[in-house]
Queue: 4 jobs
Job 1
Amino acid sequence: LDRLSVFTPVLIIFAIVFTLSAIKNIYDTSAHAMSLGSNAIATLENYIDNTTSELAELNRHVSNTCSVDDTQRLRQYVFQSPKAKEVSLFDAEGQVYCSSNEGKTHFDVGEAAIKQINQTPTLTTIALSESRSHDKAIFIYSANEDLSGINALLPPNLFLELITPKFEQQYYDYQVNILQHSLEHKTGSENQAYRSYNFKSERYPISLTLHLTPHSYFTNFGQHIWRVISLASAIAVLYQAIRNYKLTRNSLAFSLKEAI
């Protein structure tokens, strides 16, 4: 009976703390998802900014003749880049005339890409299209005022690895779009999203949707379980200290009363 009187309040304290923490976790998980989504868009924007700056600098050191030196400079950039697999030069008509893989070549950039470049004040953009090998690829463009310029080809997985590992760590389902094209779409077969959050870049045609699943909430709660246990333990210890103090004080007062 004495043990039950000691442990019952402790169990109640832990139950209350865990219940309140679980309720708070719903809001914390949403806040964390919103933070990760915003940071993901910023990460992609920064990467595109840095890449277009590098491409613009490279473009200033090549000619429009696709000489051997020009090809070598393009290949050197690809060799030193951790993500770019090909770099190409295109003219004002949107025709690629030089690439790091082939040297002199001739193929169309595409009207959609040229239109998108023309609509941006920085003359830089990103597009999702098929490469010449018919694989899905990401193209980052940096153009001059006459709309000639340079682009870099990236495999989608190398681009997405900038952001998706954190989503997968939190068990978020997600969808990444470039313009209206889906770049990546990951959904769990057994999970149903409780909440969804949309994010969109203000400078590039990139959008992101995060879906929170039950696994997302459990994962976030598990990552902070030590705080819950610490708080519950601290309250339980404080409660026991106060209880013991009162018992001791009452026992002493009773003893003195009996002695008198």
Job 2
Amino acid sequence: HLESSATARTLTTAMGVAEGYQQARPPVYSLPSSHDVYWRPHQQCPYFLSQLDKLYNSDEWKQLEQDQADVLNRHDTDLRHVWNVYDRMLVSNETSSDWDLIQALATQTELWRFGPESVPVVSNTLQKILDTTEDGLYVYTTHYTVLLSVLYALRWDPYEIPPYASAIVLERVGDRFAVYYRRTTSDQLLGGNLVTLPCDDCIQPKLTLQDWCSYCRNDSADVCTTCSNGNPDMARPFGVALRVGAIMRLIGFVAGKRRLKV
């Protein structure tokens, strides 16, 4: 089956992948965005969002924005949204004398926003990946914001915004498994460089779903309200999932086991 976040653009990707299946097209499942603590966790974590506000008001952030005011003004943006300029220039292959500086600013700010402090936010995402029990090769690709946090959780310093189509690869054989980071380049989208990630005790820190809800101060997602009512075992990832015929953006593809996370 396929699982997806419920943002409009990701459905198109999932549908494209589903159409590529030779036999029966797999069903697609999704959760409403307000309840998705797995594939869009940052947006469902009020505590994380409050920490972002503190970052935006920090002296370090304000100083960098002031120092780079000229280039930000040339692109009609502020430091908080410079990643949009970076993304547009990258996708359109735009030639600009500002490219190196825009890339450096986007990298710095995104590593600040989704750095080591964001690791607890993706504990549900990472646990869902690592809970795979069947032998096979599992490839998970997602929004780079989630990927950054997951890489930090796996004790890997990304040092950059993950390139397009980069992914986390899990290889499981029996009780053994290895975790890799598939870092692609623009001319190597199908291959990429596999980097073995340290995984003797992968998820840092280990949070139960109930712990995550408490950490994030989330009392509105269905799994969090279920936990708070004293029924943590009822908080299944897709217990109230919506089956949909289309979804939006690839969050993970399971090769060989015909399961896809989007």
Job 3
Amino acid sequence: VARRITAEGAHAGQGIGAEDYAGFMLHARALVDGRPYGDIGYLYSHYNPGHGPRLMPPGVPLVLAGLWAVVGEHEWSTKLAMYALSVAFFLIAGLYFVRDDPWLAVGVTLLVGLAPIVVRSSPLVQSDLPFCLCVWLVLWLADRPGAWTWGRVAGITAAGTAAILFRLVGVVLVPALLFVSLWRWKELRWKGLTAPLIWLGTLAAGVFVVGVPRLLRRPEWVNAADIIHALARNNVVYRMAIGDGDGHRARRHTVA
């Protein structure tokens, strides 16, 4: 499996439809340079809020920033990190089924590892496969036979936190684990509630610290001419189309 994905993706680029990689890499570069996480030069307009978020989830940027801080920013090191996370996902997916049937575990590993879309995605700077790794790790730890220990609880909490950092949709683990904990309350007690309560508390603190000030802030109305003049003052060559708000192009400006 590792040989197949390496042969397929060793010389592959990020792909036209994989635009998220730019945000991840810019965030990682900002962290390595000691700049604020959001200092990536992204031009955001509230006139089109659906055109990309201001900030990408920090999971992939944190991985890349740690790697680049040690070995530098290189294509080979970046791809190697994404390959490692992908192969780890294949192994965890298979390991989950080992106790049921070893051959089933081998089949699952081959299925997820040799699927064409997965093979093409393995070297890309994307959060999909790392997110899957963390989710499957939570499932594997939670469903292992035997009583839950505090070590297992710590592992579940860490893996679930990483899943949320890679992709915000990981918050579905909160109600899922809450349900399991309440369903198996006599067996798990507070050990089952520890991880979801930590996740809920962290998310609530994040919303309070980041979200509330944004809700109280007065909206900033930016004039397109101000943007053009600011670009001109910095000797930036940039071409933009100014629309009428409904997606129709009104006029084109070139600033040099």
Job 4
Amino acid sequence: IPYHLAKLYEIASLESDAHLRAIRLLELYEHTLCHLGLVGLAQYLQLNQVDNQVEATRAELGRTSLGHWLALTRALDSVLSQVGIPLLTPPVNTGYRDGPIYAAAEKLAPLAEIDCPKKVRISYFLDLLVKFRNKKRGHGSLTPTEAESIVHSREASLVEWLAGLEILQNDHLVYVRQVTYVSDHFVYEGMDLTAGTSIYPARLEGSHPIQQDRLYLGLPQGEETQQLIPLYPYFAFERDTNTLYVYNELSKKSQLVLR
């Protein structure tokens, strides 16, 4: 999975305090939705798509929230699924009557003060996590006892959901440090940021010049080639410190703030 998400999961998994671990897992969920929304938006713009629902949620990017990232991701998934590049896999109408996602829903629903259905669909699960976060982090507090009761099922359900997101497994986050022209093609050299907490050198080839010192989403097109979709200005990478910055909000002067 992408470097920044893998680092967040590592931090959560190493946290011994159940309360803090539950909070870190919520943060991982929010950052994952943010990642899906922003890479989906990059593909949406690259394909010159126009959709009323996407445009409505995109207009609210100035002050984002967990609910906003979910709404944007869903809207983009609806559009991009029609051209064969869904963001949310398995489909959100996929249902479970057992397993980690169902078990987590059974424990989280009472804390969020909503009913748990006999068949838990992914759409319900994603909404539940937003409602749980708002109930226990936004407008209330998660007690140590509550955290202890849900943290293990919460982690297992998140791992199951992340494992099913094909875009995290198949598409590569690529930092292009340098672009050179060799013979009859261009060579893009940089770093592959999709190998968990490790960073590996990347060397790709293409027929067009691209901006260097930028992040791209690499879509597989063959054994040795990739289509590179620019992620600027929503992502930036500082190679001296191996720090990945992601769009968070607009400043008072309407400038993009990355954190």
